[in-house]
Amino acid sequence: MTLFDFIQMFAKMAVVVGLALSSVPFLVWFERRGSAWMQGRVGPNRVGPFGLLQSVADVLKLFLKESFIPGHVNKFFYLLAPAIALAAPLGALMVIPFGSHAMVMGQKVVLQIAQIDSGLIFLLAFAGLEVYPVILGGWASHNKYTVLGALRGSSQMVSYEIAMGMSILSMLVIYGTFNLQEMVAWQGDSWLGFIPTWGAFINPIGALIFFISIFAETNRLPFDLPEGDAEIVGGYHTEYGAMKFGMFFLAEYVAMVMASALISTLYFGGFNLLPGFGLLVSWVGGYTDGSPDALQNVKAAFEFVSILLKVGFFLFVFVWVRWTLPRFRFDQLMDLGWKVLFPLSFVNLLVVIFMSYFFVS
What we know:
mainly alpha; two-stranded antiparallel ribbon; 14 helices; 67% helix
């Protein structure tokens, strides 16, 4: 690896990880402020303009709190659980492409941290680790409420991963590749000159199943049964405090960012330009020197903005759904996963295979 390769790799990691982590305080503020708007309340509005610094104050409070470890826990796994919870979604983000490529000092820089042909498998492997902190945190805490939360969380994740996996498999039949860059490129065409060939338009049932399943995978309402405070206090992280709880809290929002990026990549064109952005690229490109490298960099910048806007939209939907739908009962959660989504995803996969075999040359 040359010095340039090392620098560009480090820069890409800094941008992706920095954006993922720095977005969390704003998301927390928006979730609290958004819930207040929906419920006719004011929300946080004292610390900083419009209450924007309230999340910063909460983070400082977690940093300054005493890091107490209960004496009855299994210390090694108790401390390991929040570390895995945060590392898993950050690792999955490493293969999400956030642009085609940019030209820096005459060298091509692919806007993706880990360029792996089997990138989707790599991503799913890291995303699948999310069940381990739930199990480890609940079991290692040696508390009946945490164990109940861990049992709920693990059964929920395993159940919905099957439907989610089948919805992804149906897209693999369509795309014919595990490479996320190639998947995004496949979605770069259009029908009739204005309808993008996004995965959600090609396979709407698969997109809907994946979208519902990702709520269960991230333990977000209406599927937040593992930490349902009305029944099991705080779920699998009841015994956690200070920054150990803060890591679980941070991991939940980073997982939302990762899930939103994955939905955007698989089903909504990824970094492909949003409608109308092509005109902006041409307009801004007119102010450059007209070289191919400069035009490519302008396009790459708007591709980056495009995927950021798509991710931002799905993060808004995560918040919107939380304050719109009530929490399901656990039996309703299992019924939806096994009796509705699983057979629907299986039938959808068969239909996609049939259509691809007989109607796609």
